[in-house]
Amino acid sequence: MVSSKMNTNLKGKTIAFLVAGEGVEQVELTEPWKAVQDAGGTPRLVSLERGTVQAFNHLSKGDTFPVDEVVDPAAALHYDALVLPGGVANPDQLRMAPKAVAFVKGFATAGKPIAVICHGSWTLIEADVLQGRTITSWPSLKTDIRNAGGTWVDEEVVVCSAGPGPLVSSRKPDDLKAFNQTLVDTFATA
What we know:
By secondary structure, the protein is an alpha/beta fold. It has one domain (2-189): Rossmann fold (3-Layer(aba) Sandwich), CATH 3.40.50.880. 31% of the residues lie in helices and 26% in strands. The protein has helices at residues 26-38, 89-94, 98-110, 121-126, 142-147, 176-189, and strands at residues 14-18, 22-25, 42-47, 52-57, 60-66, 69-70, 81-84, 114-117, 134-135, 151-152, 157-160, 167-170. The strands form three sheets. Strands 6-3-1-7-8-12-11 form a seven-stranded mixed sheet, sandwiched between helices. A three-stranded mixed sheet has the order 2-4-5.
């Protein structure tokens, strides 16, 4: 497993994983979560409401996960980094929730590292934080990213340092090995 090969230390760092109440792609939540834990970090599940979130394996229901904290824009200051997993329904719901958008914008404005995979970039687009940034995503988002002022590239993993904080991005679940290693390395040095 990729996370066992990581030699970067996230001890003392708390990482927010922002997801909606349903629709997050399970593997895009669980694999980075495990990578953060294996590197000594503390992942926290942040969502729109208390209770649990329903993950999906593509279009089929997956497992449920307990919410650690309800999204609060000011809470971005209490975290060291942010992970935005994908799934189609997940970021679509997040971008319609003003508190979630403000939470994401808070990380970007503060220069804190953000990692995003697949359709997760929709929330970054809504937060208006992609101007001048280079990222990758699921290919269907390339026009949205370009319209938001970003540069879209088709690569396994991209680290953009052109903004106030580093932005790690990947396209899809097949990229998780590279995504996990890169987000841990980036979070550890930010």
